[in-house]
Amino acid sequence: MIREDEFSPSPSQRQIAVERPATDVRIGIRPGTIGGYVILGLLALIYLIPLLFVLFVSLMSSRQFSLGAASFPDPIMWSNYPEAWIKGSFSTYFLNTLLYTFVIVFGTLIIATLAAFPIARAHVRGSNFFYVLFLSGILLPAGIIPQFFVMQQLGIYDTRFGYILLWLSRVALPIFIITGFIKSIPSELDDAAAIDGCSYMRYILQVVVPLIQPALSVVGLIIAIRVWNDIIGPVIFLPSNSIKPISAGLLQFFAEFAAQWTLIAAAIVITASPLVLLYLFTQRYIIAGMTSGALKG
Fold first, then answer.
1. Are 236 and 219 spatial neighbours (Cβ–Cβ below 8 Å)?
2. Which domain CATH number covers 113?
3. Angle, helices 246-256/80-87, rounded to nearest 10 degrees
4. Up-side HSE of residue 5: CA atoms within 13 Å toward CB?
5. Is the pTM of this model over 0.85?
6. Distance from CA of residue 69 to its chain's centroid?
7. What is the domain range of residue 259?
């Protein structure tokens, strides 16, 4: 005979069964989370629909666009892109823009880093005053008319050097961002480097710059976008077509081919594509820099 108590669990087994965590826990989704995703989806559509519309128009023929612009391109006219590139002389504008962007971005990062470090460490008298002074440069509008007359007096109006120099003077926002990151670096590193005999410039280049690389990535992308999309500066300070950037070339292309909307859409895609690709390849560095700055601030 098998006794009934042989199948009943012992007290130790009952304790283990009680302490064993449940594995079928259901995780509920909050209504606020669903609403947030809905809002983000609507915002994504608001941004994506115009971009897709321009992309579709750039691949249409003029006949299809006149019959119905809100349709899928059929047949796909890839020839619109080389035609717009040749008619608009975008090769010259594109090379000018690359030159301006690279020189201005690297020059701004160097100037902003060298200016932000002594302000953050209070190595100069009145560092707080200089910090507030640069901060006011973010809030106050740019003096375009004084800049116009100064560049004429210096003989650098309508020159590549003058346009680059004009952008290198707009370092208020980069200094503000980089200063905040440098303040988060422990000052004990400065003392340790001084004891080891590390020079001032070597310490900035080999210690500070790697630590503030997220900030440099964010600042570099912000400056690149501003330079690439600048339209007022080239119109005022670069009247010669041979040295204009691609934004001014797009404006001139629109004035010459105002009735050919398919070519205009192709020119817009050509102009915007480099920035879109740049953001897609560097977005993780941008997010890392922004979150790092938020946590350190």
1. no
2. 1.10.3720.10
3. 100
4. 2
5. no
6. 31
7. 80-296
Provide the sign of the torsion angle of the four alpha carbons 55, 61, 62, 66, taken in this order.
negative
The answer to whether 273 touches 226, Cβ cutoff 8 Å, is no
Reported as a pLDDT band with limits 50, 70 and 90, residue 132 is: confident
The answer to the question of residue 30 being in a domain is no
Query: How high is the mean pLDDT of the chain?
Result: 83
pLDDT higher than 50, residue 1: no
- The verdict on residue 130 lying in a domain is yes
Give the separation between CA 291 and CA 14, rounded to whole angstroms.
48
User: Distance between alpha carbon 186 and the CA centroid of its chain, in Å?
Assistant: 28
pLDDT at 32 over 80: no
Q: What is the pLDDT of residues 80-89, one digit of tens each?
A: 999 999 998 8
| CB contact at 8 A, 264 and 257 | yes
